[in-house]
Amino acid sequence: MSDTDQSTPTRPPGAIESEMEATRDRLAKTIDELAFRASPKNIVRREIAAIKGFFVDATGRPRTDNILKVAGGVVAAVGAVVVIRKLG
């Protein structure tokens, strides 16, 4: 086999440049999407939506089972603090 024989075909420079440009564009879009997702405002919005989703269903009706669980936990915590203060 001589030096001029190649097992892989060569691509014209224009094709390589086009592929590099397409890769650069995809990378730029990916970076923009990551920056959008990591924005503190967007993180807060997602967290608020998650908390609302815990207490309100998709139709806007309250989820009483979850509300009662949280209210029960708060009442238990306040009761524990009151008992500890009276004993201490």
Q: What does this protein look like?
A:
- By secondary structure, this protein is mostly helical.
- It has helices at 13-38, 40-55, 64-87.
- It is built from 3 helices and no strands.
- Helix/strand-derived category reads mainly alpha
Order of helices and strands: HHH
Q: State the separation between the terminal residues, measured CA to CA.
A: 92 Å
| Overall form | elongated
- Which bin fits the share of residues in helices? over 70%
What's the main sheet like?
none
Number of domains: 1
Average of per-residue pLDDT values = 90
Figure out the total of helices. Answer: 3
Strand count:
0
> Strand content of the residues, in percent?
under 5%
Rg over CA atoms, rounded to whole Å, is: 30 Å
The poorly predicted ranges are none
Any chance you could write out the topology, listing elements then pairs?
Blueprint: H1 13-38, H2 40-55, H3 64-87
